[in-house]
Amino acid sequence: MKFRIQRDYRNDVHYVWCSEHFDSTKLDPYAPGFKTASSADPANIYKRLVEDIATKDLHSSKIARQKTTLKKLANDWANASEITQKQQEEIVYLVDNASFQEWRPLLFLIPLNLVAERLELVPIERRASGGKEYIIRDLQRSEFEIIEP
What we know:
This protein has helices at 2-9, 42-54, 61-79, 85-97, 112-115; strands at 13-18, 107-109, 120-121, 134-140, 145-147. The chain is α+β, with helices and mostly antiparallel strands. The protein has one domain (2-147). It has a 3-stranded antiparallel β-sheet. Strands 2-5 form a two-stranded antiparallel ribbon. Helix 3 runs antiparallel to helix 4. The two termini are 15 Å apart.
């Protein structure tokens, strides 16, 4: 759903919060990022969302947070005149009426050499644990591959 909204309403420019490693539990125990908090570990987030979708979990906390975030962003974008009021209403409708399948996780494979200069290290007080987390505010569609379940 987030990918669709950014593709259709944000000119295919994507805001992503990302990690250097997909599954921190597979790292050497002394490596930076080992045992990243489960709420920030891409493998754990992926597995949890796949399970919530498979079981059609109406109380999925991950989906609920995404709905709240996307509706807030649509409001912010409309207030900043980055999208129209009609587009904001469309986004809210899409979010409120999306099927479980539309919340399926997508993995973005992002080559570091394409984004290294734009990676922002998330301040430690905003991270879920000591592992490094990054933000890319303007990821272009040509800069990543999508891996679907």
